[in-house]
Amino acid sequence: MARSTATDKRFLELKSGKWRVTVAVPRDLHGELGTRLKKPLHTDSLAVANVLKWQVVGELKAVIEQTRKKNGGGRDPLIREALEIAAIRSRAETGEEYARLNDLNLEIESRAEIIAGKDPDAARQYAEIAHGQATPIDLHHETFVTQSKTKARTQADDRRAIAYLKQWCEQNRVRPMIQAITRKAAVRFMDDLHKVAGGHSPITLNKYLGRLSRYWQWLVLREHAELDPWARLKIQAPPRPHDEEERAFTDAEVKDLLEGPATQRMQDLMRIGALTGARLDAIVDLKVGDCEGGIFVFKPQKKETKPRAVPVHPDLEEIIKRRTEGKEAGDDLFPEWPAPRKVGSQRERSFKASNAFTDYRRSVGVDHIVPGKRRSLVNFHSFRRWFITKAEQADQPESIIAAVVGHKRKGMTLGRYSAGPLMEQARRCVEAVSLPTNFQ
């Protein structure tokens, strides 16, 4: 039975009181199109929206199909045929198989002549791919992404980077082939990347260049490319004034945060951040078993290669006791902020905790906005900076501070045991930091 236009909300959602069309994007195209395509209908009437939506749904689905056609799943039939022929050539091992390649070469030339009658450029591309002289830049990309075993967010960066490169090739009449991406072409792409990718910061744009470099290194190792044209390419960021750098909290700001009307979970989160210097995601991801024997065991973050042990500050013992009592080792220390349920989600577990802290921080007047800069100069990471500052002011050795917060250091590991001189030094370092007066 047909659904009533007064209740049918398929492909529709409300945004600021107006209806808009929303269409899910297949997972393999998330890197290029995002998770959903959306278009406003400029009406607050559900009945009218249901009349208007179908043409828009068709348009958005056409965008998806067009994008898929440009990718491997919808590759042009001629290119697919040429790739299959190239695969046959690459697998030849015996004398008999090599002898057959002569007949195959004649077939390639004959097929190319027929294609040239309609499209000389397509004929040239067909012959080059079939002879193994040209390889689409994205042919091996999904295999690279799968084998890299990186986080979902990094994989999304990989897919965006190759999508930007393909888009740039199309706009600049550069053949989207591995062999066509020379050092000169790579430099041109770097100079144009801000136009293709939009208004991202140099840090983000350099991240895309770095992911392309990793892909080409993978290609070189497997002899799909001769060299990495992206090596050492980096967009220079404009000088940033000293007063626009993100900073540590002041003692007054820490006091304002701790004496404000925070929930118990937010109080616990802030205190652990301030007295360990740990990153937010590492704290939120703690298990009960990671807090045993007076030691935190934080998961590896950034460039860390293994879990990091940090002594529990005496002022945190009550929090740990309250949050671990009667629970199993595998239970979450902060069940209030569970991991994303969606499989393959690019969001870190701390995503909602970060948003909650930002809202709370602003509510108590702790903020530092610079005109023209989207992000505040203070955030949860400012607790980490505050901890390091306080440890330095307490004359703690730089190497021990680095060991506690997980900064790069040489030849030093604390392990996860309370005994030993390094752990005792780390304990002295942690206990040298105190929360502002009256907030222990």
From TrEMBL:
Q: Which GO terms describe its biological process?
A: DNA integration; DNA recombination
Alphabetically list the UniProt keywords. DNA integration, DNA recombination, DNA-binding
Q: Name one Pfam family in it.
A: Phage_integrase
Please name the InterPro entries in this protein's record: DNA_brk_join_enz (IPR011010), DUF6538 (IPR046668), Integrase-like_cat_sf (IPR013762), Integrase_catalytic (IPR002104), Integrase_recombinase_N (IPR010998), Tyrosine_recombinase_XerCD (IPR050090)
Q: Which GO terms describe its molecular function?
A: DNA binding
Which residue range or ranges hold the Tyr recombinase domain?
A: 244-431
Record-stated family = Belongs to the 'phage' integrase family.
Protein name per UniProt? Site-specific recombinase XerD
Which organism's genome codes for this protein? Microvirga lotononidis
